[in-house]
Amino acid sequence: NSEFWGGNIPWICPKDMKKKYLNESIYQITEEAIGKSSAKLIETNSILFVVRGMILSHTFPVSINTESTTINQDMNIACNRCSLSAVCEEFNANCNFILTIIVVTDQPV
Prior knowledge:
By secondary structure, the protein is of the alpha/beta class.
């Protein structure tokens, strides 16, 4: 729906996953998109990671959002109130193992 785009809510996709901490995205959606689509607002300080796409053939992107955000269908989240930074570091430190157990799809990212 074209009315859902161009707002001020970040819509994180794998292309955005280049930094440890994210506060912006390539795409933004509107408040209406939150209310009238499957998009859900994700609280700050959640761990975001890619679960689908060709990028998983060589990289397991993990970041922490510093602003409320939404994610696209190629992403997932893990909320952890203890040490988000430590969990993110564990994901990054074990990315080679994680990549061995992930099923890679042929979907472009």
